[in-house]
Predict the 3D structure of the following.
Amino acid sequence: MSEIPPPIFWVSNPEATMQVADDACKRGILHFARGELDQAIAEYSEAIRLDVTCAKAYCCRGDTYTQKGELDEAIEDYNHVLGLVRDNAGAYCGRGTAYWNKGELGQAITDFSRAIELIPKYAVFYHNRAIAHANAGHLQQAVDDFAQAIRLNPDYAAAYFGRGFTYLKNGHFDRAITDFSQAIKIHPKDGEIYYYRGVAYRGAGQTVKAEVDLAKARELGYRRR
């Protein structure tokens, strides 16, 4: 929102109004889960109209704007959350994701780092910061963050995949193969992982294994865009 929300009408039962706002939030979350993003935004906006201090509604609407690619609107909502609740780790993570999508990697890393300071044992925050570091060309920082995400969640396939992809981009084919193999153990029907392990095998000169993996990726329906 570009302006301070207008005041709401006085009601005799403010707790009831807050409950209605929470109900609108819940409906928004259901719409979001179904991919009905405009309807989700409408519900979150209604929740905000009813309770201008509803940080959850701003945060969820920010997530939805990010999903739609409306990144400035998302950042504005996350800023509003942080004005209400300064130490909201979810808002920092959401804003970091929006900045990452805008290509503002320094800002993204700063926000993910703040989220980590607030909740240091949540693997997703390290994973997200690792991706930002990788995109910024910070190989060691990316690898370290992926490793911490894996320590916190040993079944985090996305972290193995991300670290493997980082190794692949930097020509460390054997390490990439190891990480892709671990990701495949967790998600054996993900064709994209087979594809990139095939690319790593090819880079390592193991052409037969490369062709097997690339064929498996096609069998699972993966086609590189």
Summary: DSSP finds twelve helices and no strands in the chain. The CA atoms of residues 90 and 115 lie 7 Å apart.
